[in-house]
Write a structure and sequence with these properties.
The protein has 383 residues and is of the alpha+beta class. It has eight helices and 20 strands. It has helices spanning 116-125, 141-149, 166-181, 194-202, 204-209, 216-228, 274-289, 363-378; strands at residues 10-16, 23-24, 29-34, 39-43, 48-53, 60-62, 68-71, 96-97, 160-161, 184-192, 236-239, 242-245, 251-253, 255-257, 260-262, 265-266, 303-306, 326-330, 334-340, 343-357. Strands 10, 13, 16, 17, 18, 19 and 20 form a seven-stranded mixed sheet that branches. Strands 4-3-1-6 form a four-stranded antiparallel sheet, with no helix packed on it. A three-stranded antiparallel sheet has the order 2-5-7, with no helix packed on it. A hairpin with a 2-residue loop joins β19 (334-340) and β20. α1 (116-125) runs parallel beside α2 and α6 packs across α8. The protein is globular and about 75 Å long. It starts with 9 loop residues before the first strand and ends in a 5-residue tail after the last helix. The relative contact order is 0.12.
């Protein structure tokens, strides 16, 4: 298990793509790992036969631990170092039916890791350990105590209980931590997308020749990135009582997966043109969905853009991606009646919502920044 980031100390095997006795080629996908940041397929570092799996699916391993043994033609029994990223998500066990009781009972089929004290507490209190979410690699006494102090849930016939995946659990932890850390405030601006929509139509052939389909998202990301040059506080981080002003403008873009949400980062986004931004977003999103992202592609973000408008959402109040201080949300672009030069006309309009940390960013500054993004979009220029 390699070191895949400064803060990563362990990882979890999601599933093995090969079984003991299978032949495997060099660079052939061998296993899957999942972290709170990256789901990835890991290729075999050598060609040979998989003779031993030391870390089965669903198990965690510390960095540098041996995950498997591959016997090669050159050296029988040689241990092959498998290049695996970080804290991968636990395997998703098949949901197990739970009997109809008003309190969970101890599940005899529980096969996860739990401390002896946690197991005793589960028996005493009649707790199904599959319903307890561990804070670490195994269920501890503190996890059971937290479960006991939380709201009680009645499990009915036909209900199932299954553990959260590592990715889902990490997302939950990050969202709660962000709410506790930042003084969240939001501002919403209405943007006329008519100019950008006209450009998209007139330059459609040019964009297709470059191999990209350009939606509204790249325009908003680039408009936001360029505006950050004049509003460095929105590109900063608060770490304790220290203010860190970031030199580079690295914009994360939220990508929805079946298993959760991931935020790959477009590095130095303000220095790209619209085709460059569109290509970067398309490439990162495609590789996120095919589990091909590299760990360094989901770190280093200084600002985040999220696009629920892609699903038809009018606007939202997004949670800040720590330790950043701002996040921009796109609503859907839809035709609305608006007043232009005292005339009612129909225009393609969009809500832009800025979530910001009021500890550092005041409402006036947030609105000035949003006004700059709006101006960039309504008077778009490639300069």
């Amino acid at each position: 298990m390699p070191q895949m980031g400064e803060s990563i100390a362990e990882g979890t095997v999601a599933r093995w793509l090969k079984q003991v006795g299978d032949a495997v080629g060099r660079d052939e996908p061998l296993l899957e790992i999942s972290t709170d940041k990256v789901d990835a397929e890991i290729p075999s570092p050598v060609a040979g036969v998989l003779v031993e799996i030391r870390v089965p699916a669903g198990e965690m391993a510390e960095v540098h631990a041996v995950l498997a043994v591959i016997e090669t033609a050159a050296s029988a029994g040689a241990v092959a170092a498998v290049a695996v990223p970080t804290t991968p998500a636990a395997a998703r066990p098949a949901p197990t039916a739970v009997p109809a009781v008003t309190r969970p009972t101890v599940a005899s089929s529980f096969t996860g890791k739990a401390s002896p004290v946690a197991r005793v507490m589960a028996r005493v209190h009649g707790i199904d350990l599959t319903a307890v979410t561990p804070a670490g690699a195994r269920i501890s006494r503190a996890d059971v105590e937290r479960f006991l102090s939380g709201p009680k849930v009645t499990i009915n016939p036909g209900d199932t209980v299954e553990p959260m995946t590592t990715m889902r659990r990490k997302i939950a932890e990050h969202m709660i931590a962000s709410r506790r850390t930042s003084a969240h405030a939001h501002s919403v601006f209405l943007v006329d997308c008519g100019h950008v929509e006209a450009l998209r139509k007139t330059r459609k052939t040019q964009y297709e020749a470059a191999g990209v389909k350009v939606s509204i998202l790249p325009f908003v990301m680039l408009a936001a990135a360029r505006a950050l040059r004049d509003f460095p506080l929105l590109n900063a981080s608060l770490i304790g009582d220290q203010l860190v002003l970031r030199h580079d403008i690295n914009v994360g873009v939220a990508v929805a997966l079946d298993t959760g949400l991931i935020v790959p980062v477009v590095k130095r986004a303000d220095q790209l043109d619209i085709v460059g931004v569109a290509k970067a977003i398309g490439d990162l999103a495609a590789r996120a969905r095919s589990k091909q992202l590299k760990p360094d592609e989901v770190v280093g973000g200084t600002f985040t853009v999220t696009n629920p408008g892609n699903f038809g959402g009018a606007f939202a109040t997004p949670i800040i991606n720590q330790p950043q201080v701002a996040i921009l949300e796109l609503g859907t672009v839809e035709k609305r009646p608006v007043v232009v030069d005292d005339q009612i006309v129909v225009r393609p309009m969009m809500n832009l919502t800025l979530g910001f940390d009021h500890r550092l960013v005041d409402g006036a500054l947030a609105d000035q920044y949003l006004a700059a993004v709006k101006r960039n979009l309504e008077t778009w220029s490639e300069e």
